[in-house]
Amino acid sequence: MTLEEFKKISQAEIEQATSEITSVSDEQTLNNFKGRFLGKKSHLTDFYASMRDVVKEEKKDFGIALNDLRAKLQALFDEKENAFRQAKLNARLEKEKVDITLPGYQNTLGSKHPFYAVVDDVTDFFLGLGYTIADGPEVESDRNNFELMNIPKDHPARDMQDSFSINENTILRSHTSSVQARVLAAAKGQGPIKVICPGKVYRRDNDATHSHQFGQIEGLVISEDATFANLLETLTLLLRHLFGEKREVRFRPSFFPFTEPSVEADISCFECNGKGCSLCKHTGWIEILGSGMVNPNVLRLNGFDDKKYQGFAFGIGIDRVAMLKYGIDDIKRFYTNDVQFIDQFRKE
Ligand SMILES: [Zn+2]
After folding, report:
1. pLDDT of residue 161
2. Taking a C-beta distance cutoff of 8 angstroms, is the pair 183, 195 a contact?
3. How many angstroms separate the alpha carbon of residue 286 from the centre of ligand 1?
4. Has 138 been labeled as part of a binding site?
5. Is 164 left (phi over 0), alpha (psi -120 to 50) or beta?
6. How far is the CA of 160 from the centre of ligand 1 (A)?
7. Domain boundary assignment for the chain
8. pLDDT tens sequence across 33-62
């Protein structure tokens, strides 16, 4: 084949390809086009093979013309392939279209429940004083809840805590003092002990400040030298930590079967500063908690030598502290899961 002949054939090949590419409408027909004009069985491949027979002086120009033909055919293919790729991408973009003018999703952060805010606050305070945390079950034996706390069956003090019975010997614990019995049993008569026990307790009670379910934090210290003065100091520090350094703290004699002597702690009213208002029932003082020196009977009942060991115990009402601290009017708000209520305690 001469160079002149090849140029004519080459021109015809390009015209043919240009005509056929217009009818290529999908990837299948595009592949057919590629095979026909650029593949192993194409004219192009034959032309390359015929290079062998071209006369020496035309070989160089023949090669240039051949490469030119291949480049033009390849360009036809590339252009179509790009068009398909672009169309595919456009279709995908259309399908996955995001309307950036839509309002975004709002991630609302939760807030700490006021009940647990008090638990954490009191717990942190006592951990700082070297106490550890003890735990016990809410379904408890009558023995741990009452008898080992110096409240035998038929003792009138049982009327102070109207409990829920499961059977004759099993109840829902009426105070976290039941954990005292467990801690003392685990210690097997060996002090010292320094624990707090936060948890839920249950009593048959129902009004704005009393609920069938509420929270207590029990504290128990047993050692050879724990004194009444230690108790008063500990509670004074706690109450000022909870209600402010300016609060006056006073202790009144009281009675609990598991402590002797027993005291109740009051703080000066933070609403009226002691002048008298509806919060403090015009007394200037607010009752906060009960406490006392561990009754020697409790020590003996739980396997401790009351000649060697002594100690003190206290019980804090979590709900009561939270109600006072945050001005909450009804104890039931703690467990009715009203988001608007809990939302008020969000720390921004
Ligand atoms: Zn007051």
Report:
1. 67
2. yes
3. 8
4. no
5. beta
6. 27
7. 3-95, 114-343
8. 999 999 999 988 988 888 888 888 888 888
